[in-house]
Give the backbone structure.
Amino acid sequence: MGGQRWETGRTEAFSDGVFAIAITLLVLDIGIPGEEFDDLWSAIFHEWPAYLGYVTSFLTIGAIWLAHHAVFRRLRYANASVMRVNLLLLMAVSFLPFPTRLVAEAIRDESAERAAAIFYGLALLAIALLLSALWGVVARDRELLVPEVSDEEVNAILLASTPSIGFYAGAIGVAVVAPQVAAFGYLLIAVVAVLRARGDEAPAEQPT
Amino acid sequence: MGGQRWETGRTEAFSDGVFAIAITLLVLDIGIPGEEFDDLWSAIFHEWPAYLGYVTSFLTIGAIWLAHHAVFRRLRYANASVMRVNLLLLMAVSFLPFPTRLVAEAIRDESAERAAAIFYGLALLAIALLLSALWGVVARDRELLVPEVSDEEVNAILLASTPSIGFYAGAIGVAVVAPQVAAFGYLLIAVVAVLRARGDEAPAEQPT
Amino acid sequence: MGGQRWETGRTEAFSDGVFAIAITLLVLDIGIPGEEFDDLWSAIFHEWPAYLGYVTSFLTIGAIWLAHHAVFRRLRYANASVMRVNLLLLMAVSFLPFPTRLVAEAIRDESAERAAAIFYGLALLAIALLLSALWGVVARDRELLVPEVSDEEVNAILLASTPSIGFYAGAIGVAVVAPQVAAFGYLLIAVVAVLRARGDEAPAEQPT
Amino acid sequence: MGGQRWETGRTEAFSDGVFAIAITLLVLDIGIPGEEFDDLWSAIFHEWPAYLGYVTSFLTIGAIWLAHHAVFRRLRYANASVMRVNLLLLMAVSFLPFPTRLVAEAIRDESAERAAAIFYGLALLAIALLLSALWGVVARDRELLVPEVSDEEVNAILLASTPSIGFYAGAIGVAVVAPQVAAFGYLLIAVVAVLRARGDEAPAEQPT
């Protein structure tokens, strides 16, 4: 280790590719078999767990992309640890379509919904932990950062990533008792994460 | 909110990735089962609703991509609203392969064709509304725009996005009565949208 | 029309995305059902038509990408016709996984192999014609080109694209009589196209 | 040949696209049929060969991407041989999801596990050989390299790619006797390749 460097442009492009594909593959798991065409409207509505899974995973990956973007635009270059943690993060994000499919299929099956909701929550928790680890690895080596990034900013970003971890742990707890409630909880956490994503502070011109 | 900024390069790259993948996944839903190999030519022709769906959704996403391109090349940076509306737009575009598949399978099924054609139309309408909302959000905050963009141009683009919304609403109305006619109507709207897409005005050199 | 312009960077990125995805989706159609696991080696060899289809379509799209690259690096900007022909080219390339799958499944089926081989050839011919049309549209409006491109170069590229069209027409003729021969002919055309792809002439330093 | 040149930017983008898609498609092969929902936890654990295949192929492609990155950032431009070997490398990487699926399905089937593990190893070996050939082609023509790259560096990279080839050959030998051991061996080789990937040497500032 000790002093290895990677420029970040191609890593961003590769990560964006993986995020974009994982987010787009989610739709492949939504479908209505031909036998249900007799009453297609009710078949369409009956697919709601698939839409819930689609929207939740889409927004979760969207929020991860925003956070990833926020990390990388502050980097001058990456070191070996950043490259490795980033690869693990991409591996976890690419994996998400599998538990998404599982939760969409199992949510109305009493014997399976609990396991599916917990498994999905664990996948989300793993992603949140790896995202937090990515920033943690950056924060340990300030030389990786562009000079304008202040210590307060570094700590603020570290703190900002903590709540999702807590929320996911809590939602997994809920999943043990009430899997369907947890499924909506995961959606809520993703919506909040998208809404809380922050860009750069604009210089104070006239406020709009 | 108030003053958050994102540079647009990585958002464009991510959006292009999602558009490119959604447009390419459409082909996965075209196939001929081995039982129909006895008379393959007629099986190939019999798949025409799948080709119609493929071409319609491809050109629709192509037109969206051209319009998205037209929006983003006029931006200096994005604010939080742009990022969120853009994410919703990508979510709707990624979803399109599902109703495309449905309409291709149901178009010859009397009990299902109406529901499928309306559902597909609603998905297209949602995309048109979100694209319009994207430009609306930009138009509300002129600081996001590069300085060369005039007020006339902003209004012209706002106006240009309105007809598609009307066309889609009309085609959905047609789908209630004549689903197959509506299916060709959606194709027509996409063709017109591609043909109407506009780049930058070239400076008046000698006309070609 | 008359004077519309698009900068080419984002069009290249979008096209590259479509090419990369179409080329990668081809593998999804290769598979061995669990029943054939008793003698897996012979099942693996028995899949040779799938590999032939995979390699042929991969190299065909690879050659198209090289040719596309050669066109776009000579452009200063695109006009409306370039954007439209490019979209049609991408639509044809994205479609290729479907006839590829068909030819791989039908090549050993006497009643279907002829239709499948002709259909695949027609798809390849359409791609070759659209690629030729793309350059034809550029050649009609020299202002689109970067200034260094000479008239000889423009004509040389036009001529270079003609043989593939003839080869594909010929191979389709062969497919009527001998579909399996034609299948290998398509592979040969793709190999030749990759080998004939040309970059920029390097300035005459010491030859290597 | 003799003097053809391609600039590398678009080749990197296209290659990144193929790597990102191949790595993300791997998840499509993981799934649990509805009949096993009665005891979903045990069904989830029972899928371990699918996870093993997913992680192994993901890390293998990740390591290839890191190595590809290391090659291309040292290039001023590509010649015809680089373009062709790169296309073959992408073809082999795109193919990997097929043997991955095979090994995941066959690993618990006594009659098939041997063939599947050897076939997967051969695919990995082909990728390692093509990566080595890519650098070999570059090393033969130093003019392709940016001037800062020293001869020692060129040889060091050539040497660094040799062990994987040996490891894969060895693991294929193990697969003949003990396929399951070989499956874990492939994972180990991928992990080592990721850990050994090297960026640029940072200039000696204060060590961290």
